[in-house]
Design goal:
One of its GO terms (cellular component) is plasma membrane. By secondary structure, the chain is α/β, with parallel strands linked by helices. It is built from 6 helices and 6 strands. Bound molecules: guanosine-5'-triphosphate and magnesium ion.
């Protein structure tokens, strides 16, 4: 492990009631509340972790999914490093709305490179297997078609895959940064016309 801690902002988006706050609370405080209230606006919590030898401070922004809070949540999309698109596997409508959430995020976040922006998709409430309305294959197909996003089936209630999903978000950001670093390395040209294997002085 080496270097300074990397501060990453990840944002949880998805319909009201799919379990965004519960996922954040499970991950940061290891608690689950079966009677949680709807979020109003946004809330955030930090958690430090180590991923592949890198120290990371994950700043998790939990947003209000209900439509009436749209104007309270959208100003917080800017500066996000990764977006966790969340639905509940027992709620087909929440899955069908994923595209709208992606669109809303893209519109208000103003990301520099929309094609490469890292999304991770979470199908939450997998403990409610009997009431499932969205199959894992269907969800994976959506992820494949929309940008090869990693997909995790989670349960904030049972703590299934919650840590793995947040770690995947970190890995996606680091992967994206490494690709940018790599392209800078391979395209840096010195003033004498020779390609230089250095990161500095690119502009
Ligand atoms: N069975 C089950 N219930 C869950 C799970 N995650 C959340 N819930 C319940 O679903 C309800 C809504 O959860 P929240 O975390 O408040 O949902 P939210 O996405 O934050 O909702 P908004 O704040 O309105 O956007 C609560 O009653 C939770 O206890 C889960 O993994 N399994
Ligand atoms: Mg909430």
């Amino acid at each position: 492990m080496s270097g300074k801690s990397l501060l990453l902002k990840v944002i949880l988006l998805g319909d009201g009631g799919v379990g965004k706050s519960s996922l954040m609370n499970r991950y940061v405080t290891d608690r689950f509340d079966s009677q949680s209230f709807h979020t109003i606006g946004v809330e955030f919590l930090n958690r430090d972790l180590e991923v592949d030898g890198r120290l990371v401070t994950l700043q998790i922004w939990d947003t209000a999914g209900q439509e009436r809070f749209k104007s309270l949540r959208t100003p917080f999309y800017r500066g996000a490093d990764c977006c966790l698109l969340t639905f509940a596997v027992d709620d087909l409508q929440s899955f069908q709305n994923l595209g709208c959430w992606k669109k809303e995020f893209m519109y208000y976040s103003d990301v520099r490179d929309p094609e490469r922006f890292p999304f991770v998709v979470l199908g939450n409430k997998v403990d409610k297997e009997q009431e499932r309305e969205v199959g894992a294959d269907e969800a994976r197909a959506w992820c494949e078609e929309n940008g090869c996003y990693p997909y995790f089936e989670t349960s904030a209630k049972d703590d299934t895959n919650v840590g793995s999903a947040f770690e995947a978000a970190v890995r996606e950001v680091i992967k994206g940064e490494d690709q940018i670093d790599h392209s800078l390395l391979s395209s840096t040209i010195d003033l004498h016309g020779n390609r230089k294997a250095t990161r500095s002085g690119c502009c």
